[in-house]
């Protein structure tokens, strides 16, 4: 789950991504609930939201980073199964960071000076969505390369081989 090497099949990607995401959500919720129960934080008077103490914020951040790492590793292996480099994961990440950067630039400028930066930011938002949809379809619904490829053996080869061995 932590390595970026090798190939995995769609079913493994779907199940592992869902289980890891659900586990990260449950662990984070449990940590926040326990922290709130024991008073390890404070209620923000303006938003009425619970703000955990610094140590708990660090723990929640570690959980989040671990979740992202595992999902990037799984997605890279799915891309490998499609005979694509895991570096394709940088495309939506970079376009999202650029969209956020242009949003900050736009909001920091006076009203009359925002226009060229606003348009560029919107283009990056559309690029992020388009790349994200392509990536989701590519890894979630399209079959991997049959047989070995430059990233390793076919993860379905063992299952297919046993199925054909059973034929009369």
Detailed description of the structure:
The chain is mainly α and 168 residues long. The chain folds into 2 domains: 1-81; 85-147. 66% of the residues lie in helices and 4% in strands. The protein has helices at residues 10-37, 54-81, 90-108, 115-141, 157-165, and strands at residues 41-43, 50-52. A two-stranded antiparallel ribbon has the order 1-2. Helix 1 (10-37) runs antiparallel to helix 2 (54-81). The two termini are 37 Å apart. Mean pLDDT is 91; it is low at 161-168.
Number of helices: 5
How many angstroms separate the termini?
A: 37 Å
Mean pLDDT level:
91
Gross morphology? flat
- Total E-strand runs: 2
Counting copies of identical and different chains, the oligomeric state is single chain
How many separate structural domains? 2
**Global structural class:** mainly alpha
Radius of gyration, CA atoms, in whole angstroms: 22 Å
Residue windows where pLDDT falls under 50 for at least 5 positions: 161-168
Topology pattern, helix = H, strand = E: HEEHHHH
Strand content: under 5%
- Main-sheet strand order equals 1-2
Helix content: 55-70%
Sheet of most strands: 2 strands, antiparallel
What tags apply to this protein structure?
single chain; 168 residues; mainly alpha; 2 domains; two-stranded antiparallel sheet; 4% strand; disordered C terminus
